[in-house]
Structure formats: structure tokens, C-alpha cells
Amino acid sequence: xTDRLAGKVxxxxxxxxxxxxxxxxxxxxxxxxxxxxxxxADRARATVAAAGAAGFEMDSAHPxxxxxxxxxxxxxxxxxxxxxxxxxxxxxxxxxxxxxxxAQMSYEQIWVPTMVGExxxxxxxxxxxxxxxxxSAAARLSTLPRWPPCAAPKWLACWLIAREKxxxxxxxxxxxxxxxxxxxxxxxxxxxxxxxxPPPRG
Length: 202
Ligand SMILES: NC(=O)c1ccc[n+]([C@@H]2O[C@H](COP(=O)([O-])OP(=O)(O)OC[C@H]3O[C@@H](n4cnc5c(N)ncnc54)[C@H](O)[C@@H]3O)[C@@H](O)[C@H]2O)c1
Description:
By secondary structure, this protein is an alpha/beta fold. The chain is built from 6 helices and 6 strands. The protein has helices at residues 18-29, 41-53, 69-83, 107-135, 154-178, 192-195, and strands spanning 9-13, 33-37, 58-61, 88-91, 140-143, 184-186. Helix 1 runs parallel beside helix 2 and helix 3 packs parallel to helix 4. The N and C termini lie far apart (50 Å).
């Protein structure tokens, strides 16, 4: 264990599974005060228990549906009540996207839920946590993008690449907006250089 994150308050979404759970445990190990959240209460509790078993404290709000603005605000309010600030936000929660050929893709049943589960879920939390991140002396934000599966049809791959570029711009925009207060928007573990090139000038 190191104390790289000692004293930092980290709000991590999707701590019930996958990357969110992994981040929660590693951040706690590194000394952060971790506050997690997930829509799946049982799995969120299991992560808290795993942290406890390893000797680390962790809080969690669950169930929290991060596609609902009121739930997101409730989660942020609970972190603030518990710790009084947010230094780190990791957006790891996501709803698995659904894929289909464009001609067969239902707007209501596939497109909208996929966009809500991948984009809205990040926007709502960024918006709610933003004032507290800005108030932190050295805030950090990380948002994990999704990359198209190899087998995706070409049009879908193109759409996702375009969306990743948008995400990269969003990330850059957040960094620009937060820059004056020393806020840092950190890149994902993916190699951004392969995903995004600056648009040509002029
Ligand atoms: N798995 C990978 O290899 C990988 C790599 C890079 C990026 N990513 C991205 O990271 C993100 C997380 O991936 P993962 O593999 O950890 O996913 P996962 O499905 O294992 O975990 C997602 C978590 O989010 C929670 N969640 C889903 N909907 C929610 C909601 N409405 N409100 C609150 N919580 C909700 C789930 O309950 C789950 O615990 C995704 O956006 C994914 O694209 C994944």
C-alpha cells in the first residue's frame, strides 16, 4: 500500500462491478476516501465488504440510478455530507450498449437506451459534481470510453469512432472549462492518440 491518494475524496461510479469496482479497491488501497455508487445494491455492498475485508474504509450509495438526475444529485449530496468535498470523479458506470444493423435498429428500444447508458450517465454526474470538483484544490476527472467490438459493421464502427471523438472533445472541453482552477481532466487508459486528432484549423 502507498499513500499516493491520501486525503483525497474519490467519487467512483459503477463500483458494483468491473472497472468501477477495481478502481474503488485500488483507490482505497492508495489511501483515498472512496465513495462508490451503483444501481445494483447487492454488488455495491459486496465491493464495500471487499474493501473492508482488505482493511480499507469505503462508503457507497445504492441503489442509485445514474440515468436519473435526482438520483445523481442524491449521491453527490451524500458524498458532500460525508466528506465535505470531491477531489476525484471516476465515471465508470455504464449500461452495456446494444448493437444492430442500422435498418433494424429501433430508435426507442436500442438507440436511446444506448445513448442514455453511455452518454447521459456521464453528463449527469459531471454536471452534479462539477461545482465541487471546481472547488477542490486539485480535482481530477476520468471518464472511460467504450471502443467498438472488432466484429462491428463498418458503419457502426464509424459511428462509434465519431462518438469517441466527441467524447474526447467533451473531455478536452471539461479540461478547458476547469483549467483556470487547476482542474485536470485525465485521459482514459486507452491510447487517445489513435482515437482523436485535432480538427484542422481554419
Ligand atoms: N471492460 C473493458 O475492457 C473496458 C475497457 C475500456 C473502457 N471500458 C468502459 O468502462 C465502462 C465500465 O466498463 P465495465 O467493464 O467496468 O462495465 P461493467 O458492466 O462490468 O460495470 C458497470 C457497472 O455500472 C453499473 N451500472 C449500470 N447502469 C447503471 C445505472 N443506471 N446507474 C448506476 N450504475 C449503473 C452496473 O451495475 C455495473 O456495476 C464502460 O463504459 C466501458 O465501455 C471498459
